[in-house]
Amino acid sequence: xxxxxxxxxxxxxxxxxxxxxxxxxxxxxxxxxxxxxxxxxxxxxxxxxxxxxxxxxxxxxxxxxxxxxxxxxxxxxxxxxxxxxxxxxxxxxxxxxxxxxxxxxxxxxxxxxxxxxxxxxxxxxxxxxxxxxxxxxxxxx
Length: 141
Fold this sequence. Notes:
Elements: H1 2-20, E1 34-39, E2 53-61, E3 67-73, E4 81-85, E5 92-100, E6 110-114, E7 118-119, E8 125-130, E9 136-137
Parallel strand pairs: 1-8
Antiparallel strand pairs: 1-4, 2-3, 2-5, 5-6, 5-7, 6-9
């Protein structure tokens, strides 16, 4: 009799483990990819005048580098975070930056590509931050 109860209890336990499972397959995971852009660069010129215009273009690209979608941030506020949901076919983000000072006596614009590619990951948010040490070049990375 004890053996029958033990077998029944063991069978119930096995069924519970199989039914409820303990694998990651039963956990809800998101395939959504997001990214957050933030500029830590002051957009005030040396003379203390607000720039004529500054903007950032965030290009979502597929694995081969073809542009799928773009997001424009204009004007850019220092320290503010901008979060976007990426296209499901996107694999990476490239950043184009333009900053043209207004009435600047020291020269022209800062225009170019941030020389870093930001790779997206399913279910995760990727942080993209421009700092004073970000490398800007004329060629797309």
